[in-house]
Structure formats: structure tokens, C-alpha cells
Amino acid sequence: AQRVTQPEKLLSVFKGAPVELKCNYSYSGSPELFWYVQYSRQRLQLLLRHISRESIKGFTADLNKGETSFHLKKPFAQEEDSAMYYCALRGSGNTPLVFGKGTRLSVIA
Amino acid sequence: SQTIHQWPATLVQPVGSPLSLECTVEGTSNPNLYWYRQAAGRGLQLLFYSVGIGQISSEVPQNLSASRPQDRQFILSSKKLLLSDSGFYLCAWSLGLAGADTQYFGPGTRLTVL
Q: Closest residue of B to A102, CA-based?
């Protein structure tokens, strides 16, 4: 079974501090992992995906198959990073994404 | 460019009443379509998805149903709403490609069942 766990419901950090949003997954095959973000009054949208190995808005995420994790990191948090973040997994074939329960990030000035 | 629409934006319905939420996609053909419910503390729960007209997969057994009467139209329905059906309903689409298949979300419908 596919499962995504985000252990933190709410994470508060000060502006300029590093931030790490945790995501662990359960899947027997080779998954595709994503981070989606929902800013206030905006649509849920893709932030980044592991296969692209990209940095978006200063955020990066590395897939660690040994620890089955895909934590989202940013060295210096900004107030505009405050949002709801969802980690998502896609298994093999044409299957839908499975989302975690989300973590609300609050960046305090 | 592709766009996805949902309506209504908000809805207040009494318990036991029927429900119909509509989602349409423009600018693409044969998309995969999805219905999610976003509830506080429960995250994003996949309800239904469709890979083609008339093809519906149900992820969570409940009193909701979905239909896809046209290629780019996805409808979420209920014959009798329950209090527990309250939530924020999101429609999404994707191209259904293996690999980096991105899902694009609509603006959502806020449903309150009283």
C-alpha cells in the first residue's frame, strides 16, 4: 500500500531560520515524490518533484530511499513561505497521487 | 493554455439534500480527472479519479458518486448529504503521463452541510 506521512501538522519558524518539513513514505516499488504548496487564497500547486532535482523558491528536497524520506528544506525561511505544504507520492503506472495530511508552515517576522 | 473551473465556489446545504458539484477543464484532451476532499486535520483525501469518459475509480466508499459524461467534465454527486460531507472539494486534472505527471488543481468548492 502507498502511504505518505507528514508528522508535523504545524511548524513555526522565525524569518531567516532554516526550515525542514518532514515527509516519509511507504511504497514497495520506486516512487515518484512531489511537494505541493497552497498559499493563502490560492490554488494548490506543484512546488517541486524529485526527478527534476531542482530548487524552487529556495526549497530543495532529496529522495532518500534508505530512510524512505523526502524532506523539504530551505536554508533561510521568508515570510512569504507561510503556506500549507503537502508531500505526495505516485506509484507505478497511471495512478493518482497519494497525499500526506499536510504541514502548515508559519514564518514569523 | 489549460484551465480548470469548479462551481459553485461555496455551497450550504441541509442534511439529506442532494449534491452536484461540477468541474470542467479547457485546453487539453483526454485528461485524467480527480476529486479530492480537503478537511482540517485529514489532509487531502482522494475520492474518485477517471482516466476516460465513463471510467470512474472510487477510492473511498461513501455516499458520494462521480460521473464523467464528457471528456473534460467531471461531476461529484450525492443523493442525500450527511453532516460529515462538509469540507473543501478540489477537482484536479493531469495528462496521465508516466514520469513527472503534474496534477493541476481547481479553485475548490466549500461545502457546508447543516
A: B43
pLDDT by position in tens, chain A (length 109): 789 999 999 999 999 999 999 999 999 888 889 999 999 989 999 999 888 888 889 999 989 989 999 999 999 999 999 999 999 998 877 778 899 999 999 999 9
Chain A residues near residue B92 by CB distance under 8 angstroms? 44
Which single residue is written with the C-alpha cell 449534491?
B19
Q: Does B106 touch chain A (CB under 8 A)?
A: yes
Judged by CB atoms closer than 8 Å, whether chains meet at A99 and B46 is answered as: yes
